[in-house]
Structures are given as structure tokens and as C-alpha cells.
Amino acid sequence: MSDRTRISDPMATTRRGFLGRMATAGLVLTPFGVVAARSASAAAASPANGAGTRSGRRAPEGTLTFFHYDSFSNPTGETLLADYQKANPKVKIDLVPMPPGEPAPYINAIMAGGTAPDLMTLATNEQPWKDIKKGWWLDLTDYVNAPNPYVEGNKRWIDLLTPSAAAQVPFADGHYYSMTTTGFDVAFIYNKTIFNELGVQPPKTWPELVDILKKAKAANYIPLFAELGDQSYGGQFPGFISILEDTVMDASIRKMDTNQDGVVDVKELIVGIKNKTYAAANEDYQESWKLLNSLAPYFQNGALAATGSDDGFKAFSTGRVATWFEGSFNSNALDNKSDIEWGAFPMPDLTEDVTKFVTKEPQRKGSFGACCGYPWAIPSTTKDHGHLELALDFIYWLSIPENTDKFASGAGVLSVLKDAKPNPELAAFETAASSVSRVAVAELSLPPEFMNTRARLVGEYVGGKTPLDQVMQQMQQNMDKMADQAVGMYGFTL
Q1: Burial class of residue 62, CB neighbours in 10 A (0-12, 13-18, 19+)
Q2: Per the CB 3.0–4.6 Å rule, which of 213, 239, 337, 387 could disulfide with 367?
């Protein structure tokens, strides 16, 4: 995004990008699953949805200190906090405010000094991974694999999530150092008026997408606004490549997924880089770049000058853009700050007449999902201070589907729970978040230079500045360098 702050911590950058910007720029999501017929307080008190029961556990008491990344700094969040404390009169929640500037140095300092709050909201699910050997964060595996006492019939807390989201949460060692019920993702945003004029419907396949773009160009519209100059870590448009990779690299991804859990973790990706299963010289790796390049004739003039969602929003708001690939957080601004009647559709399916690498399996649609909502982690000091049960109780309660729906609507993120009640306006984004590319989280878990450099090289190639063979040579150097750095950062033994 255009105002993303770049820092050295690869796991803390996206908060200022995805979510910090939502708060500062007012780009807050339309609710994903708001139940308008019931108030938050009614939901909190209703035994029917598990909100008022703890399966025999004693009521919590004490003061919970909570660094929340401003996720409750909205009316809905404030109501949820009040409801929890009303239902638990012996509990007080003290919110720890965001520090001035970038929060990563602050978080590192309090964790190293043993002065962390009882509960911490993170930048991404991956944030604790680099600190595991320091002992800063509690291993939550036993809790994640045990029932959530607030949800009747639940056997494992993690089972409340969609399968795709659940697969993104554990570290490469199979352990859980964070938990989440929210996420974020991308899709094509389209102008309904233009689509009606052209006599087309949202495409299901890649050929249908290309046909729409051709018709839009012939009618003198901008067919696809592309933020080709977005070279930031975790940027929305760079996620385009990660989504396509899942389809065209299916055979390689299955080979890299050595534990066969349905996702390539960062350690498996590093091994794949070193044994050249994931290599820039490979034809299947290059295919996603070629597919994006095939859409270049339909981009706006000067696509490399577009560096983030601000540029895209301004262009789309003119009414001259047919489609725009961006994040779900833009929905509120589109509803309230533009006159465009808009819709959204996920990445269309590739077909055999488009690429020989197309998989016969369902094609993934997302590139972020559960990695980038508002995940929680518990510092080791919380257990030392006797506040572990209190911290767990609060996030158990917030994981009730109805409470997560409300929290997501207020905080500007998507629920990644199976029982979320999606808003049809945002169904495309929910689809993306529930079917994330199997390599996306691992790619984001490499040092940030990996994604920064890839975005730059994609821009140079698709923008016509550098031929494919040259950018692939540079990309391989980038892969090798970042894999070596990640081995040291995570302390892996390969």
C-alpha cells in the first residue's frame, strides 16, 4: 500500500499496511456476518450460542492487560469489551495503547524485558516464529487442540476455522504459537454499470475474464487497473502471482508439501528452493508471471506508476475502470466515498486451453487469509503472573462465531470461521480468504526482501522493461539469498 511503513521485522510489517491503514484512512469493511436482529449484549448473554457458558469452568476474575493493536478502537469493539466485562463482573480489561511510530521495536523491547501485557494482538500469525527459541511466547498447541468451552459440541478450538485458515496457523514444527478467527484477502472489484453496458457477468474462467477486458477496451474503458508499481511487502497486487502459483505449480507444491498437510510451510519452501523444486528456471514457476503478462494490454497507461490502493481507488471512483484487483478493506470507502455501484469476484479459474499446467483440483483464490487478520498470542510471562486462564477465557469467548462476526465488522477484517455469516457484497473476498494459495504464507514468511524484490521484478517484466530470462536470473538469486537468511532467522536444521 502507498503508506506502508517498511521495517526490518518481516512479521510485523503488514499491520501498518493492511490494518493500520484501515484505521487511519477510514477504510473499514462492510460487516462479514453482522446479525442485525440481535444486539451484541444479547448475544453475549445467550446460552444458545455458547456465549454464556464455560462448560463447567469457573468464572474468571482479575485484570487482563491487553495490547490490541487498536482492533477494539471502534464502537462495536467497545461494546464487545463491555459485554464481556458485564458477563464477568470480576474481570477488568485494561487496553494497552499503540505506541508512537512503528510498534515492532516496542513489542520486541517489552517481550525481551519480561514486561509484556497478558494478551497480545499480533501483526501476523507468523510474528512469534522468529522468537520461539527465545522463549517469549507460550506454546498454545494443547489449547488449540482442546475444546473451546464456550462453543457447544466443539472438540478442538482450531476446528472452528475453515480448513484453509486452520492450515495457515501452525509453525513448521506443527505447534501453535498464536490463534486467530479473522483474516483478510483480495479479489477483482468491478463496476456494475460498465458490466451492464457491456452485457457481461462476473467471469468464472480466465477466458471469460479476457473476453470482458477486450470488450471494455473496445468501449474505451480502462479494462483492469493494475497497481504494478506496488513493491511493498504484503502488497495487494503482488498477491496475484501467489494465487496463480497454486494452480500452475500444483505438482511442485505437492512435492514440496512433504508432511502432506495441504500447505507448504516456510521450512518446506526453503527445502524446495534448495533442491530446485521451487526455482525461477522452472517452467511451472514462470507460468504465473507469463499469465499476468498476458493481461498487460488491458492495464491502464503507466501501470508502473500505480503503487497502492489509493491510486486504484481514485481511478476506480472516476467510473472509467471496469475492474480493479484489490483488498476487501476498500468496500467501506467505495460505499461511502464514491458513486460507483460495485461488485466483486474472485480469481477466475484457469482452463486447459490457457495453460498446460492447470490442476484438476479446485483452484485456490486467496493470497493472505488467516495470516493477516488480528491474531492473538500469549506471552510466557502471562502464565508466570497467574493470568493464563483469564487471557484464554477472553479469546475463547471472542471466538464464538457471532462474537467474531461482530468483532470483524468493527475491526475491518474478515471472519475465517466455518460458521461466519457472510455479507453477499463481500462473498468474493470471503471465498478468497477461505481458499488461500498453499505457498502464500511461506512466501510471506521469508525475509521481506523476497517479496519486495519479486514485486519489483514482476513490474520490470510485465511493464516491458526487462526480458523474462533476465528477471528470472535475478529472481533465483533472490530466492537463494532469502532462503539462507531464513534458515538462520528460524534456526532450522535442514
Answers
A1: middle
A2: 239
Q: Residue 51 carries which DSSP code?
A: T
- Provide the residue ranges of all domains of the chain, joining segments of one domain with +: 14-184+372-421, 186-365+438-490
The candidate with the shortest Cα–Cα distance to 382, out of 114, 11, 16, is 114
- Does 40 score more than 80 pLDDT? no
The amino acid at residue 247 is: T
Q: Can you tell me the distance from the alpha carbon of 342 to that of 330, in angstroms, rounded to the nearest whole number?
A: 11
Q: What is the rounded distance in angstroms from the CA atom of residue 270 to the CA atom of residue 251?
A: 17
pLDDT tens sequence across 113-157: 999 999 999 888 888 988 988 999 999 999 999 999 999 999 999
What integer is the mean pLDDT of 46-75?
Answer: 73
Rounded CA-CA distance 3/21 in Å is 8
Cell of 142: 494443547
Helix, strand, coil % in the chain, rounded to nearest 5: 45, 10, 40
Neighbours of 270 (CB within 10 A): 27
The CATH code for residues 14-184+372-421 is 3.40.190.10
Condensed to tens digits (0 to 9), the pLDDT of residues 312-346 reads: 999 999 999 999 999 988 887 898 889 999 999 99
Residue 252 to residue 282: CA distance in whole angstroms? 10
Q: Do domains 14-184+372-421 and 186-365+438-490 have the same CATH topology?
A: yes
Q: What is the DSSP string of 299-364?
A: BPTTGGG--SHHHHHHHHTTT-EEEEEEEGGGHHHHHHH----EEEEPPPBP-TTT-TT--SSPPP
Model pTM?
0.81
Instruction: Quote the DSSP letter at residue 417.
Output: B
What the block records as the C-alpha cell of 164 is: 484453509
Domain 186-365+438-490 bears CATH identifier 3.40.190.10 = yes
Q: What would the grid cell of residue 11 be? A: 512479521
Residue type present at position 392: L
